[in-house]
Automatic annotation (TrEMBL):
Keywords: Electron transport, Endoplasmic reticulum, Heme, Iron, Membrane, Metal-binding, Microsome, Transmembrane, Transport. This is Cytochrome b5. It comes from the Eukaryota. Gene3D superfamilies: Cytochrome b5-like heme/steroid binding domain.
Amino acid sequence: MGEVKRFSRAEVAQHKGRAGGRLWLIYKDSVYDLTDYLAEHPAGDAVILEEGGGDASKAFDEVGHSGDARDIMAKYKIGEVNEDEKYYDEKGKKKKRVVQVQPEEGGSGESRGLLGICCCGLLR
Ligand code: HEM
């Protein structure tokens, strides 16, 4: 098997399936081109079009799709999202989102929350 193709989420978002374009979507960090499946979807194309270009993990799971549906989906896989944009770890478990807080430029390096500001007022 060859190398897996990698896509950025921004690149996937360019394929919304509108105006004759291809329809890609993301399910659990894998990228699918469902253009040729749209017309076959048992629940119609509209529900998939709504997710076009985006991450359909939640929508797909909420339906409670069958194993058959998952087998079909596998046939349309074209790659995976870039490693640094993945939401799931190697075990398929959802990663904790790491939010990096940059210190404010030129500031004191300390940002006070509302509570902090109130307390400071009281202590003065
Ligand atoms: C990603 C590729 C997809 C494939 C291969 C797929 C396949 C299928 C299949 C085979 C069914 C028939 C029922 C079953 O076997 O589970 C189904 C039903 C359905 N799908 Fe999808 N589906 C896909 C994506 C989506 C997405 C993104 C949505 C968005 C919400 C969606 C919404 C539905 C709904 C609402 C039903 C009807 C469920 C029901 O009758 O209870 N599907 N799909």
